[in-house]
Design a protein that fits this description.
The chain has 3 domains: 19-218, Alpha/Beta hydrolase fold, catalytic domain (Rossmann fold), CATH 3.40.50; 222-266, no CATH class; 301-498 and 630-712, Rossmann fold, CATH 3.40.50.1820. The protein is 30% helix and 17% strand. One of its GO terms (biological process) is proteolysis.
Length: 717
């Protein structure tokens, strides 16, 4: 890994989240010095805010640089970044602005700034405008984060009128609206708005003279569809590849049918250079923000925030994979704040699938999956001494072959709600929240939009995962943006039907010789095969079930081949001395010193100790004071899966969702450790992981990694 890459990976992206306090409709500050540049600035720089919108609830941040030649007569340019919705800082440093960034020395906290001898400010006055609501621009309410091409154009026109009122000496200067890329859509709209305003007699009259656009987007389908012929014309594609792609795709490279595998395999993906991340470093240094007079605003709560993590307490050195943590606000008012861990694929993040992992419960944290099942790290029990459990790389992590998002369910882990009602959820609301999460997350991570998306999980997620996939497909069909490239779903030992699944446990116990033939046949006869909805007056049935419970009470229901353990006694003060290692098992097993029986559930206490450590929470950029970490939202649970105050079990069976999804060209992998199933009419793959327990990747990590890798490749398991 190069120093450049290491430096980039250490970037911490901070996002403004605002709680409204009254501000003037516009404010400006003259900036005479900037961190990273020695001495006073040799040009006039102004920064400020202008409020626009019907209620002035969108606040636009700008940088203004006076012409270094003749500001009184030189043209006035307003620069619109592409995106849509991008900060103008990239243009300020890398395109037409007065500075360039020195990024050859990665040891400095703040990159050095150099003058750009080819800046357009040498001959024009330039306003660099942060689009709503990017950069340092923001909105005062969640509703006003919603934007469009026409609304953005109106906001920019309003900005110009207010800005020129505050800067009347520039009203007579020739005005040009300028930009690149996606601004090819919005700039003509802005110019039209300006002309319309002038013709309507709006004041001040703006001296609009023209517009300039570089490599503009003008028509989405035409422009994107011509990229492959263009790449061939300038010798970026071989004749063979171009002709193959042209033939397989029939000249249509945008609206490609999901079943056209030959076309999809020919299409090449392009990843953008990451040197622009230096602007994020510079822009988020506190001294820079102070110099630019950025408002230190208390958040009404982030709709989205993220942090790149390069090291973790307990792990020696830098992490050998890319880890990001963050929050995504979901719900009508973003009242639910979902915390996530995201690990990029260690193989090929550009092409490998992206998984979102839904922990069971319902309402459990992703931490057990992250450490004990399929995540990139595991605990080093043997070398854990004292304070923070030590961490090792997991050679069988699913992140070896896929990018994985681990989400803490609402009210668990580090996820929280801003209101009491925000903690109330259900099977369907949970699924809608995850769909909303995915849309926001992928909007902020557009490079993963084309990756195959799979929704995955185990246990209770057998109810919610199919609903999530159903919601995604329904949203795609309704034209929701962004369109999610959903390919299928994977569930381990899933709950699919509360009655059928729980009722089949007695038959299962008999199949595995946990119940005698006599007791099984007696129970079956007395209860008429229904062991859930039992009439209390049926004494023969209740008596038989009491015998069954007596036979099974000491079994570990998560893995019948391992001892049963009491998982209710979570360590309040963790100490390495309470654990010892048994290396003969082939895996690291925790064993309480005062017991001769090791308990797998004791291993989870290390995860609890790690997650509740203050240094860990600081490293993960957890919002302090929002919630106390919890493994699961215990308010959701009630014996028998009855509704609680915070959770409505409103989908008793997911079978109908499975059936409907088989008609949607949606792949499914359902893996367990019991028996195999198949049906010629279904695109469902059933797999047995022999010798595994309830969470198969925890018990058989090597086998499960091989299984998912083969399934992604659509090869025989």
């Amino acid at each position: 890994m190069t120093n450049h890459t290491k430096f980039i990976s250490s970037v911490l992206l901070l996002f403004l989240v605002i709680s409204y306090t009254p501000n003037p409709t516009s404010s400006q500050t003259i900036v005479k010095a900037l961190p990273g540049f020695p001495g006073e600035l040799p040009f006039k720089l102004e920064t400020g805010y202008v409020e626009v919108g019907e209620r002035e609830d969108v606040v636009l941040f700008y940088y203004f640089v006076e012409s270094e030649r003749n500001p009184a007569t030189d043209p006035l340019l307003i620069w619109i970044a592409g995106g849509p919705g991008c900060s103008t800082l990239r243009s300020f440093f890398f395109q037409i602005g007065p500075f360039t960034i020195e990024y050859s020395d990665t040891s400095k906290e703040i990159p050095d700034l150099h003058l750009n001898p080819y800046s357009w400010t040498k001959l024009a006055n330039v306003i660099f405008l942060d689009a709503p609501t990017s950069g340092f621009s923001y909105a005062k309410s969640p509703e006003t984060y919603t934007n469009s091409d026409t609304l953005s154009a109106k906001y920019t026109y309003q900005f110009l009128r207010k800005w020129l009122e505050k800067h009347p000496k520039f009203i007579s200067n020739p005005l040009y609206v300028t930009g690149i890329s996606y601004s090819g859509i919005t700039i003509p709209l802005i110019v039209q708005e300006t002309f319309n305003g002038n013709e309507a007699g709006n004041e001040p009259r703006i001296n609009i003279t023209g517009y300039i656009i570089g490599n503009p987007l003008t028509d989405r389908n035409i422009d994107f569809n011509t990229r492959i012929p263009y790449a061939h014309q300038v010798a970026l594609l071989s004749d063979e590849l171009y002709e193959s792609t042209k033939a397989h795709c029939n000249g249509e490279y945008v609206n490609v049918h999901a079943n056209n595998k030959l076309c999809q395999s020919d299409l090449q993906k392009v990843d953008e250079e990451n040197t622009y991340l230096y602007t994020d470093v510079w822009a988020n240094v506190p001294s820079v923000r102070k110099a630019l007079n950025i408002r230190e605003i208390n958040l009404f709560q982030l709709s989205f925030s993220q942090s790149f993590i390069t090291s973790l307490p307990g792990f020696s050195g830098k992490l050998p994979f890319k880890l990001e943590t963050g929050y995504v606000g979901v719900g009508e008012q973003d009242e639910q704040q979902l915390f996530y861990y995201f690990v990029e694929s260690e193989r090929n993040p550009v092409d490998d699938p992206i998984l979102i992992w839904i922990t069971g419960g319902p309402g459990c944290s992703a931490i057990r999956s992250f450490f004990n099942q399929l995540g990139p790290l595991r605990f080093d029990y043997e070398n854990t001494h004292g304070k923070i459990p030590q961490l090792l790389d997991n050679p069988y992590s699913w992140t070896k072959v896929a990018s994985v998002i681990f989400v803490d369910a609402s009210g668990s882990g580090f996820s929280y709600a801003k209101t009491k009602d925000g903690y109330k959820t259900s099977d369907t609301i949970t699924s809608q929240s995850i769909y909303a999460f995915l849309k926001k997350w992928l909007t902020d991570h557009p490079k993963f939009l084309n990756n195959p998306l799979y929704v995955s999980g185990l246990s209770y997620s057998g109810i919610t995962v199919p609903i999530i996939v159903h919601d995604i497909i329904k949203g795609n069909e309704a034209g929701n943006v962004p369109q999610l490239n959903i390919k299928g779903y994977m569930i381990g030992n899933p709950l699919t039907d509360r009655f059928i699944d729980f009722n089949s446990r007695i038959q299962y116990a008999h199949n595995f010789a946990l119940l005698s033939d006599e007791l099984y046949e007696s129970t079956k006869a007395h209860c008429h095969g229904d062991y859930i909805n039992v009439n209390p007056a049926n004494g023969l049935c209740t008596g038989a079930l009491a015998e069954v419970n007596e036979c099974l009470k000491d079994l570990n229901e998560h893995q019948i081949l391992e001892p049963n353990c009491d998982d209710t006694a979570v360590l309040q003060q963790w100490d390495r001395s309470t654990f010892k290692t048994n290396p003969a098992t082939g895996r690291v097993l925790a064993q309480l010193q005062d017991s001769d029986t090791w308990c797998r559930v004791d291993n989870y206490e290390l995860a609890i100790a790690w997650a509740t450590d203050a240094a860990v929470q600081k490293a993960l950029h957890v919002r302090q004071g929002t919630t106390k970490w919890s493994k699961c939202n215990d308010d959701h649970y009630y014996l028998g899966r009855n509704d609680t105050e915070t959770y409505k079990y409103n989908v008793p069976s997911s079978v109908v969702y499975h059936r409907n999804l088989t008609k949607k060209n949606c792949r499914a992998l359902i893996y367990s450790y019991t028996e195999s199933f198949s049906h010629d009419d279904y695109s469902l793959t059933f797999a047995t992981v022999k010798g595994a327990g309830h969470a198969a990747p925890e018990f058989k990590p090597e086998e499960c990694l091989a299984m998912v890798d083969r399934w992604f490749a659509d090869t025989q398991l």
